[in-house]
Amino acid sequence: xxxxxxxxLSLEKLNGVDCIKMSGNxxxxxxxxxxxxxxxxxQIVPFDASHYDGIELKIYGNNEIYNLHIKTVDLFRPWQSxxxxxxxxxxxxxxxxxxxELEPHRTGVPFRKDKIKRIALAAIGREFDVELYLASIKFxxxx
Length: 143
Hints:
- The chain has 143 residues and is an all-beta fold.
- The protein has a single domain, classed as Galactose-binding lectin (Jelly Rolls, Sandwich), CATH 2.60.120.
- The chain has strands at 6-14, 17-26, 34-40, 54-61, 65-72, 81-87, 93-98, 103-105, 116-124, 128-140.
- A hairpin with a 2-residue loop joins strand 1 (6-14) and strand 2.
- The relative contact order is 0.32.
- The model has no long low-confidence stretch (mean pLDDT 95).
């Protein structure tokens, strides 16, 4: 979390679906501005997603815009990532984010999908209440 933003994670069941809930609020005070949950994919070596085209999220939210952040072994600073935004609805939805949609954030290093070390879902950049439910996250292929 940044500054005085507040967030927490809890295990929930929403409309019969087991999920993780990220809740809280984003504050830009005191150099703040984000709340996130992340998944480390690198135990010894980075995750190789070369055979996939992107990431699919099964999500439910509060009609707010959130971010997907991916870090690779090429990024060393905490503020660097590859990002894409997604809109939530107050119903379960499957949202696909193609690797080709990712924008480098504060890096000039090209995205390499064979070197993924972390995936995060973030509430970032503006003040708002956070309520994001995640039932699944998986890689998908169009072929």
